């Protein structure tokens, strides 16, 4: 059972109960655990515990037939209610939850329902004990208390129902799904809770408690089942109706705020259990409209006609101003342009260190911790506070007077008298709580609704810099204008959630050129919204003084930077932000410093390498971190960067900063960090973020980071020597990123000049230093398997050319450690070790070593039977690499290597790959790749052995089954490729094997019917592989393959997915190659069948299709020569390929002419022939020549 952690509702009409501060109703509250109070001596009991023990003993001794029962109960209830059981007392409370449950169960049998005063006090006691002690009730206690309160609602007078519902709300907190009968009775059409919570209920107290009870029923504690959808929908509609209803006349604002708070909590609980299930766009628009109105609850000077429903639209829906109310005198601080401004509520005063003030006893038990929302904003600290007002004005353009945060401006005049000020202050606290809860609900909506649906309402919550008219009320308005740091923090959390995952939506933004049309394109609107978000969040960054909120500002900026398409926007946004956040690197709050580094990390990963960021990284130190408007803060001067002799000037400023933060002592320390003997390093969170930024920098801008090869190696080695496993882990990841960057430089497809690459001798020195240091200890650190796995990944990132130059003992150490780690029980380590071996098997210096190949193969075969899917997936990937090595060795070394490798090992690999092809997709995709390589590698002498024949057939049928399956497209793509790879083995009995027909049928089916064009391309390529006519079987199978390829060519434009359309040209080219290949292999017996196919109805469609694309490719050929000179480097290669194609076509043409003459075509075909022949003389396109040859054969 769940713990009733308390409710935020004040208790009305209970003069006998002192108003103690209660705990806030929160699903995140930690349940009470008796073990937590063992720190106090057994004999040091608090007065509350002693009082509880005495009263509990006396209550348990009472019986229903006692003569003085009523008086005893009254006295004992008063004594128990007078104690404060909050755990925030001086001495910890050690009252056991089971003692409370026994007491309440026994007492419920002593209080008859006809004694209504006792019923009220007992209900108050239930709420008091369960709320303050956070008792986890057992099932029996829950049933007893639920039945008692439910019967009390039915039998007792209405005046008692407020306290009964309060007790019931505490009992059902998080247990709504366990109280089926109660929920059914209370939430039925004429249920008592629905009656009391209705907007037509005149008793505001009953309405509030009923809504609180309903909210607690909807709350789900982790581990508990969900409330039935029908009851949750009933509650949702009532909560929404409450939020939409106007305030009843003659109702106190304070009480009305509490009703709204209860409804908002209930709505939040309904939305926090999963996806949106409460109707379509109308309901969602109603919820968003109500929440947006309540986000601005209590805003002075705000007079807006709020819409009842917000509809999805790409354009902003501005709230219309209502006529000014003559009864409200204008405030002296407001100007006509500042109608939307949240002015300061009271004079702000700096507080001393103790923020948490002791709460006062009030008539209602309000959550007094909410008084923190009234506090003055803390003293400006760090780098962000020393920026002047002029700096803010330099950022703000036209609408800056609206966006500047006026909660920073202090009024020197008191607006209220003492009595009025106390009432107004209390109301502001409640209104602030309403705004906070509305934002919590909005956050739940953002998480529950699908992104593509939510972004239809983007313009209602995100500003888009309107050209004219009043500024819109958005989340940015709250972030800049609300006087409460908590509310601003909630608004930032909502905006962060909206921006999280918005990359696909924001990808349409573009403003590199001004729109030339009479309307504003949607792409330009999105770009304007991104710029407005940058400007508003930059103002918030400058003005914010609360460390928690400042941290959330930087996190929100990180979400924005991660998802915005800066390569499609005008440069400048990141440059301004880059300079602006630099002073905060030395902020005295650790979380702020860490979040700023995270923001730098987001900037260096945004569409890396981004030219704007590359220029920022290349700027000198004094320019790369210059402050805004030329002002230099004390924190700027503190960033001395610790220049060292011999340090290259080309190292990016950010890299040197991160190295400094990781390795150098902190120059300034905050109060809570202490100043123990000697200067201490930065706190671990800051150093971890700095290491992550270094990794991002190396990954995205390796050409700039490679000059600091030695320095990065030193940092990594030093961090690996530390005892903190997190620091060790991130330093290992940094080494992996650096090694991967070097490997990328040496890839054949990267045309990087040799002078720009890291020299191999420096790479060798780098890895020698790393491998001779603490990396070996990290590989053997069994206490931290994640670190071991990361160290394995680091070993796998060694450049193959550098590995070959390492000393033999170092190479042997790497191989031995990896082989040994594959026997560990931890799946993370085993996965990383198997993957590293899969990398090493491709190294030229290792792949020809038969012993290493055999050892690696045995390790991989054992890993393929592991119970972990991740281990099996990496084992299948490594097996694919190993079989790639077999093919390379077969081509380079020849039969000698094939004969040296064990036949039984090959058989085991074939059987293991066949079994893995029936595994999950992540295993299957590489298992079929290995099968294709193995079938290609097998010799004729092996395939004729009886022990190989059945596994060989099983392997081919596994590939056929995978091609025909509904697996992921990557799996089917690899299976088609594997079949084509197998067909390259001339020893494979394609003409006689019983599985041959199934293989060709599967490929023919896929090439015509698969939705994915890449799978079609690979299937067509596989059908082109057999080099002998006999491999295609008889004439019937040959013509079937021809017919399938012709049909695929005719349907090569029918793309189901628009993204596949870009592969249509490649598909047509491959199909043309395949048809030409079949034509070149065709015999005299095949020609009549092919001629009949071309002369029939199908042939007419194919001819029309070919002629259409003939003209299209002719046009492309004429414009192809107008490309820039940068593309001319491939002209020689393309010319060679063209000559090869022409040679094949000439051979095919000569061969066809040597066959028996086929009747000449009819006059219509003759005319087509002349057109195609003429086009073939003007262009060298393969398609033209192919058409010429085909029509010559008809």
UniProtKB/TrEMBL annotation:
Region named Disordered: 351-385, 1115-1138
Domain DUF4042, first and last residues per copy: 433-613
Transmembrane parts of this sequence: none
Taxonomic superkingdom: Eukaryota
Family matches, as InterPro entries: ARM-like, ARM-type_fold, DUF4042, HEAT6
Comp. bias (Basic and acidic residues): 1115-1132
Gene3D superfamilies on file: Leucine-rich Repeat Variant
Protein's name in the database: HEAT repeat-containing protein 6
Originating species: Xiphophorus couchianus (Monterrey platyfish)
């Amino acid at each position: 059972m769940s713990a009733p952690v308390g409710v935020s509702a004040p208790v009305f009409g209970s003069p006998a109960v002192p108003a103690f501060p209660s705990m806030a109703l929160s699903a995140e509250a930690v349940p009470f655990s008796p073990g937590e109070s063992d720190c106090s001596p057994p004999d040091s009991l608090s007065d509350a515990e002693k009082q509880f023990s005495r009263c509990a003993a006396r209550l348990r001794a009472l019986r229903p037939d006692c003569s003085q029962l009523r008086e005893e109960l009254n006295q004992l209830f008063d004594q128990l209610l007078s104690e404060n059981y909050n755990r925030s007392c001086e001495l910890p409370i050690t009252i056991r939850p089971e003692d409370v449950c026994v007491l309440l169960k026994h007492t419920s049998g002593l209080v008859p329902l006809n004694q209504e005063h006792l019923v009220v006090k007992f209900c108050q006691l239930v709420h008091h004990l369960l709320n303050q002690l956070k008792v986890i009730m057992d099932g029996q206690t829950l049933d007893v208390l639920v039945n008692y309160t439910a019967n009390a609602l039915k039998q007792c007078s209405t005046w008692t129902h407020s306290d009964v519902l309060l007790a019931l709300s505490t009992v059902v907190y998080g247990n709504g799904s366990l109280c089926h009968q109660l929920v059914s009775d209370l939430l039925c059409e004429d249920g008592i809770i629905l009656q009391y919570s209705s907007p037509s209920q005149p008793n505001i107290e009953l309405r509030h408690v009923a809504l609180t009870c309903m909210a607690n029923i909807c709350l789900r504690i982790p581990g508990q089942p969900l409330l039935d959808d029908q009851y949750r929908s009933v509650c949702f509609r009532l909560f929404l109706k409450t939020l939409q209803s106007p305030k009843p006349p003659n109702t106190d604002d304070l009480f009305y705020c509490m009703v709204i708070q209860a409804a908002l909590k209930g709505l939040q609980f309904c939305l926090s259990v999963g996806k949106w299930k409460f109707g379509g766009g109308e309901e969602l628009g109603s919820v968003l409209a109500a929440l947006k109105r309540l986000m601005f609850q209590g805003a002075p000077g705000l007079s807006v006609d709020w819409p009842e429903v917000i509809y999805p639209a790409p354009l902003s829906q501005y709230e219309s101003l209502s006529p000014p109310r003559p009864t409200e005198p204008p405030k002296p601080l407001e100007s006509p342009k500042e109608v939307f401004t949240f002015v300061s509520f009271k004079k702000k005063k700096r507080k001393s260190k103790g923020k948490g003030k002791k709460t006062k006893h009030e008539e209602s038990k309000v959550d007094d911790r909410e008084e923190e929302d009234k506090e003055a904003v803390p003293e400006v600290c760090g780098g962000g506070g020393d920026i002047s007002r002029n700096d803010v004005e330099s950022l703000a353009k036209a609408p800056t007077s609206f966006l500047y945060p006026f909660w920073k401006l202090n009024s020197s005049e008191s607006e209220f008298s003492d009595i009025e000020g106390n009432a107004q202050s209390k109301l502001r606290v409640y209104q602030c709580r309403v705004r906070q809860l509305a934002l919590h609900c909005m956050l739940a909506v953002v998480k529950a609704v699908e992104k593509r649906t939510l972004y239809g309402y983007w313009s209602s919550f995100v500003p888009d810099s309107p050209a004219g008219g009043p500024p819109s009320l958005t989340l940015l308005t709250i972030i800049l204008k609300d006087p409460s740091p908590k509310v601003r923090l909630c608004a930032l959390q909502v905006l962060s959630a909206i921006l999280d995952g918005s990359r696909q939506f924001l990808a349409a933004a573009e403003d590199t050129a001004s729109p030339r049309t009479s309307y504003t394109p949607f792409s330009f609107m999105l770009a304007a919204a991104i710029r407005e978000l940058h400007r508003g969040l930059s103002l918030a960054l400058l003005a914010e003084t609360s460390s928690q909120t400042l941290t959330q500002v930087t996190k929100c900026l990180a979400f924005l930077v991660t998802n915005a398409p800066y390569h499609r926007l005008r440069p400048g946004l990141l440059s301004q932000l880059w300079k602006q956040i630099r002073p905060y690197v030395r902020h005295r709050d650790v979380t702020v410093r860490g979040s700023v580094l995270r923001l730098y990390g987001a900037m260096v990963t945004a569409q890396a390498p981004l030219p704007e960021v590359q220029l920022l990284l290349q700027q000198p130190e004094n320019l790369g971190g210059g402050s805004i408007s030329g002002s230099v803060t004390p924190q700027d001067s503190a960033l001395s960067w610790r220049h060292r002799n011999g340090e290259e000037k080309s190292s990016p400023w950010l890299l040197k900063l991160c190295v400094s933060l990781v390795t150098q002592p902190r120059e300034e320390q905050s109060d809570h960090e202490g100043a123990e003997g000697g200067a201490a390093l930065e706190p671990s969170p800051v150093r971890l973020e700095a290491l992550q930024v270094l990794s991002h920098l190396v990954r995205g801008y390796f050409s700039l980071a490679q000059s600091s090869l030695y320095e990065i190696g030193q940092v990594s080695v030093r961090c690996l020597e530390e005892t903190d496993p997190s620091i060790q882990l991130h330093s290992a990841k940094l080494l992996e990123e650096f090694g991967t960057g070097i490997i990328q430089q040496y890839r054949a497809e990267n045309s990087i000049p040799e002078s720009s690459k890291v020299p191999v001798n420096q790479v060798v020195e780098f890895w020698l230093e790393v491998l001779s240091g603490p990396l070996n200890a990290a590989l053997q650190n069994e206490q931290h398997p994640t670190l071991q796995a990361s160290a394995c990944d680091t070993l796998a990132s060694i450049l193959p050319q550098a590995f070959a130059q390492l000393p033999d003992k170092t190479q042997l150490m790497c191989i031995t450690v990896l082989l040994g780690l594959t026997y560990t029980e931890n799946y993370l380590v085993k996965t990383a070790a198997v993957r590293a071996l899969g990398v090493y098997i491709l190294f030229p210096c290792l792949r020809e070593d038969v012993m290493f190949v055999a050892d690696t193969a045995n390790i991989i075969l054992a890993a393929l039977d592991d119970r972990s899917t991740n281990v099996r997936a990496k084992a299948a990937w490594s097996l694919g690499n190993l079989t790639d090595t077999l093919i390379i060795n077969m081509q380079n070394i020849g039969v000698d290597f094939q004969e040296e490798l064990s036949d039984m090992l090959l058989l085991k690999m074939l059987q293991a790959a066949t079994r893995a092809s029936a595994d999950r997709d992540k295993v299957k995709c590489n298992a079929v790749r290995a099968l294709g390589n193995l079938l290609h590698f097998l010799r004729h002498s092996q395939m004729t052995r009886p022990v190989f024949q059945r596994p060989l057939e099983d392997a081919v049928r596994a590939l056929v089954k995978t091609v025909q399956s509904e697996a992921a497209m990557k799996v089917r793509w690899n299976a088609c490729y594997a079949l084509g790879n197998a067909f390259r083995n001339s020893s494979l009995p394609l003409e006689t094997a019983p599985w041959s027909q199934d293989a060709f049928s599967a490929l023919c089916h896929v090439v015509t019917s698969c939705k994915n064009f890449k799978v079609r391309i690979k299937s067509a390529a596989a059908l082109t592989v057999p080099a002998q006519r006999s491999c295609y079987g008889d004439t019937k199978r040959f013509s079937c393959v021809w017919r399938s390829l012709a049909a695929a060519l005719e349907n090569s434009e029918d793309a189901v997915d628009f993204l596949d359309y870009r592969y249509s040209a490649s598909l047509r080219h491959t199909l043309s190659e395949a048809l030409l290949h079949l034509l070149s292999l065709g015999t005299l017996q095949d020609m009549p069948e092919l001629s009949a196919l071309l002369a029939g109805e199908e042939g007419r469609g194919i001819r029309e299709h070919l002629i259409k694309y003939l003209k299209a490719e002719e046009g492309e050929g004429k414009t192809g020569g107008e490309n820039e000179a940068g593309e001319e480097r491939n002209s020689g290669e393309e010319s060679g390929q063209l000559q090869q194609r022409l040679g094949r076509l000439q051979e095919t043409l000569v061969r066809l002419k040597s066959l028996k003459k086929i009747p000449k075509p009819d006059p219509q075909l003759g005319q087509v022939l002349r057109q195609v022949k003429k086009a073939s003389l003007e262009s060298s396109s393969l398609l033209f020549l192919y058409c010429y040859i085909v029509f010559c054969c008809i």
